[in-house]
């Protein structure tokens, strides 16, 4: 079956917290489930993978920080990356969004 709504809420609250994004293992521990069971139940509940959800949470966080006129380097640090290179590698979609936003006058 799917994931209980209270577990989805726990995941979303953890993803909204500042700092480095949690691993699937950390989220599984938070929900008292195995990583495999969490991943499977999350997909049933939401229709997409937990990894995609984590990436979307990063994109949303980057958008909020960008709206505060912070630099890409500052945003990378606030999202838990020690360098812009690590940020770029780990979340290329976020960096592409940020670069496109700056290219459009932000």
Quick recap of the structure?
With about 110 residues, the chain is an all-alpha fold. It has seven helices and no strands. The radius of gyration is 15 Å and the shape is elongated.
Overview of this protein structure:
This protein is mostly helical and 106 residues long. 71% of the residues lie in helices and 0% in strands.
Descriptive keywords:
106 residues; mainly alpha; 0% strand
Based on CA atoms alone, the radius of gyration comes out at 15 Å
Task: Please give the share of residues in helix.
Answer: over 70%
Derived from helix and strand composition plus strand pairing, the structural class reads: mainly alpha
Strand content: under 5%
Low-confidence stretches: none
Shape: elongated
H/E element sequence: HHHHHHH
N/C terminus separation: 43 Å
The helix tally amounts to 7
Query: What's the total number of strands?
Result: 0
Mean pLDDT: 81
Q: Strand count, sense and closure of the main sheet?
A: none
């Amino acid at each position: 079956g799917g994931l209980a709504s209270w577990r989805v809420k726990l995941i979303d609250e953890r993803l909204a917290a500042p700092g480095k994004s949690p691993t699937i293992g950390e989220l599984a521990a938070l929900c008292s489930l195995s990583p495999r069971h969490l991943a499977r139940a999350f997909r049933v509940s939401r229709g997409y993978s937990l990894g995609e959800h984590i990436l979307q949470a990063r994109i949303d966080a980057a958008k909020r920080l960008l709206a505060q006129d912070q630099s890409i380097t500052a945003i990378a640090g606030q999202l838990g990356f020690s360098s812009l290179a690590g940020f770029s590698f780990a979340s290329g979609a976020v960096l592409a969004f940020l670069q496109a936003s700056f290219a459009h006058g932000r």
